[in-house]
Specification:
By secondary structure, the protein is an alpha+beta fold. The chain has 2 domains: 2-99, lambda repressor-like DNA-binding domains (434 Repressor (Amino-terminal Domain)), CATH 1.10.260; 116-273, 2-Layer Sandwich (Beta-Lactamase), CATH 3.30.450.180. Helices cover 46% and strands 15% of the residues. The protein contains 12 helices and 5 strands. A hairpin with a 3-residue loop joins strand 3 (231-237) and strand 4 (241-252). Helix 2 crosses helix 4 and helix 11 (200-212) crosses helix 12. This is Helix-turn-helix domain-containing protein. One of its GO terms (molecular function) is DNA binding. InterPro entries: Cro/C1-type_HTH (IPR001387), Lambda_DNA-bd_dom_sf (IPR010982), MLTR_LBD (IPR041413).
Length: 274
């Protein structure tokens, strides 16, 4: 029964890929593709033969893709197709996701500015909140986050969250049940970065931590993968004592490499009452 369900899912995904590509093809005019208009066309957009020729693909292969057949598309072929179809960033990412392939043009993380609206939002949040980029380096944060994260956001130290957790003595003192949290963070990072493990920035972070942190190297080699689902976060703050929060993480609209994390609550108490 499970195998049947998975097969149906694959078929539906191939059909969605074919429908998506066909819809993009039909939006293109010959002029947009640098082709002469020619005689009046019976169907909108470019013909399958024209797209296949522009991409350097066989007409049969391209037709099968649009028909949702079980054919394999290489990342380079998909990249040419995305270029010819003039796909935007979100559309290109959707194409590669449907094809279950990794985009060869996204190895290097782009420098993404935190939108002004997000910066303004941070200032209105009364509890700790911060924005991480693809490598989990903090790009923006508010005053409560500065106060909470001793040794990370309160000075000129390394802004990368993983380096803070594994290389800073302050983190081991601040984070309750440090080992369990650190193990989960590595599993979350592996899941979040799965589509970008060829990114030189991520590779440098991973290599550096494997070299300088036996704990990170051990957790990384376990290959655990979990989603960044939030939940309870507890801290032993040097000034404020025991603090308990609920973590919530949001995607930043139009900036898929940025994540906004908010720690809601901040109830103080004693460790025994946890």
């Amino acid at each position: 029964m499970i195998a049947t369900t998975m097969m149906i899912t694959d078929i539906e995904q191939r059909r969605e890929l074919g429908d998506f590509i066909r819809a993009q093809r039909e939006r293109l005019t010959p002029a947009m593709a640098g082709l002469p208009a020619g005689a009046r066309r019976r169907t909108p957009g470019l013909r399958r033969e024209e797209v296949a020729q522009l991409c350097g693909l066989s007409v049969t292969w391209y037709t099968w893709i649009e028909q949702g057949r079980d054919v394999s598309a290489s990342p380079s072929a998909l990249a040419r197709l995305a270029s010819i179809l003039r796909l935007g960033r979100a559309e290109r990412a959707y194409l590669f996701e449907l094809a279950a392939k990794r985009d060869p043009d996204q190895h290097e993380a782009e420098t993404v500015d935190v939108p002004p609206a997000v910066l303004a939002c941070l200032e209105t949040i009364a509890t700790p909140a911060y924005v991480l980029d693809r490598s989990w380096t903090a790009r923006a944060w508010n005053a409560p986050a500065t106060r909470l994260f001793v040794g990370w956001l309160d000075g000129d130290a390394e802004r990368n969250l993983l380096r803070y957790i594994f290389l800073s003595a302050a983190a081991r003192s601040l984070i309750c049940e440090w080992e369990a949290r650190a193990r989960r963070v590595v599993a979350e990072f592996r899941a979040a970065g799965s589509a970008h493990l060829g990114d030189p920035g991520l590779r440098r972070v991973i290599a550096d931590l494997r070299q300088h942190s036996p704990a990170f190297s051990h957790f990384w080699d376990q290959h655990d993968v979990v989603g960044r689902e939030g939940g309870e976060r507890t801290f032993h703050h040097p000034s404020d004592g025991f603090l308990r929060y609920e973590q919530v993480t949001f995607d930043v609209a139009a900036q898929p490499d940025l994540k906004l994390t908010v720690l809601v609550g901040g109830m103080a108490g004693t460790t025994a009452g946890r």
